[in-house]
Amino acid sequence: MVLLAAAVCTKAGKAIVSRQFVEMTRTRIEGLLAAFPKLMNTGKQHTFVETESVRYVYQPLEKLYMVLITTKNSNILEDLETLRLFSRVIPEYCRVLEEGEISEHCFDLIFAFDEIVALGYRENVNLAQIRTFTEMDSHEEKVFRAVRETQEREAKAEMRRKAKELQQARRDAERAGKKPPGFGGFGSSGVTGGSSSSVISETIIEPEKPKIAPTPVRPSGPSKALKLGARGKEVDNFVDKLKSEGENIIIPSTGKRPSEASKALAPTINTESVHLRIEEKISLTCGRDGGLQNMEVLGMITLRVSDDKNGRIHLHVSNNDKKGVQLQTHPNVDKKLFTADSLIGLKNPEKSFPLNSDVGVLKWRLQTTDEALVPLTINCWPSESGNGCDVNIEYELQEEDLELNDVVVTIPVPSGVGAPVIGDLDGEYRHDSRKNVLEWCLPVVDSNNKTGSLEFSVAGRPGDFFPVSVSFVSKRTYCDIQVTKVTQVDGDSPVRFSTETSLVVDKYEIL
Predict the structure, then answer these.
(1) Which of 156, 188, 204, 488 is packed most tightly, with the most Cβ within 10 A?
(2) What is the pTM for the complete model shown?
(3) How do residues 59-76 score in pLDDT, each as one tens digit?
């Protein structure tokens, strides 16, 4: 088989795309294609037509023809198979089979034709192989482009970070009563010498003192001073990134995982023969644009008696809850006694509570969609900038009677874009590049430290920074239910008892 040419032409014989596989002049191929419509018998449908010198093998394509010009001694079956492959290639590059679309993708078609036929002979290829060959995909080129884009993003992020440091330094200088022009040399020499860095630390820390309460609880000042000297290295490849993980992480002394925090909450206390454990778990889901989707608080009082002398007792419960909590006693507890006098005791007063076993005597549940009852509100506000997103996130303690410990706000960040550039910060932060999260760590959140904010910049889109999750522990329950006194059933004499109270997070997410 010798294939002379392949062409896409109109029904009038006008060539739109033609590829010659042997030496042929333009005049020769145009003459052959112009003669093609005149040879066709309009009364019958054929797939080929012959002249004295060549054979035309063709297939209609709506208003066009796909035509192969071969020698007369070529194998007609192979010609038809080749024609089908040519006809399947054209829709791969052209959405519609019209003259304008064919002309627009003419070079793509010619490159594909060259993969099918070489020097007049059919190549053993299929449609998938043709697609792969014409794409000319290069893994090395992709790696080079990814590395270059990463370096450009890191350079831009470093530029924004230094600009924010300069702006923050000027603001702090104005607060301290110094003249802003005196800070002009900060950009060139502020991070190079030990003496100048100490001046910067004083400037950053001193203005923060008026903001902090008489007993400061958040290390916002020192964290900013440490942040100025951090992240002095910029890596240029992925291997160095892996080796330098942790360079830009400020490890807080009190930031713990939720599981670790719940373990750390239980202090070492002297347990009495009557020991009470008051536990609450909170589950909360909020929308990123505001609004509480669901909030549920589950609580329980667990009693453990280790001395048979104190088996017959009453628990005096103080219920100061005003949020509409639902209470439920154990089936063996006298419900009428609890309803009338807020006392927890057995239905049969002659019986004793089980020894050396934990017994849940009272549980409660609060479920609401009232946004005013959210103990800690989180507002995450990502806004797109020229090279990524500027993210502002803030918290506010609405339940001022609570003291939250080991608060960790976890914000997801896009992978492969480098470390976030931290701006204003209350508390401390930790960037985990393996899990692609930024953890904002706050040792204590209470009435003296009820609000705070974090600002950072990183490449990404607004939706990349959700869901935001929060974890914390507290030594005080959300629903104010406590046991104030324990007395004997006979004589109402007081009994020494010990109590441990905890509030932990089961789920706390902003979706």
Answers:
(1) 204
(2) 0.49
(3) 888 788 889 988 888 888
